[in-house]
Design goal:
With 102 residues, this protein is mostly helical. The chain has 3 helices and 2 strands, in the order αβααβ.
Amino acid sequence: MKQHTIIKNSFIFLIPAVLFLFAFSLFSSSQVSADSGNLNTMKSYESILIREGDTLTALADRYAGDKSHFSSRQYMTAIISLNNLSSEYIEAGQYLLLPNYL
């Protein structure tokens, strides 16, 4: 009888703890996926023609606020990655893809 009471009391505390952990894990994972899906996922891209005098820094300064939530430096890194560039050097007449995160 005493053992039955101990087991019953254990379940009374164990079930709410398991439910709390389950609810917490659902909330945490949905919050992370919502943030990464909205902020860090490229939605589309645009092709632009590089003109004489254009630099990656100038392009990032010009387009970062319109196409992303990134700083100019972060947006420039995204341009380099998207275009598989080995350096920051670009030439007039070249086409680049600009990522759009918004």
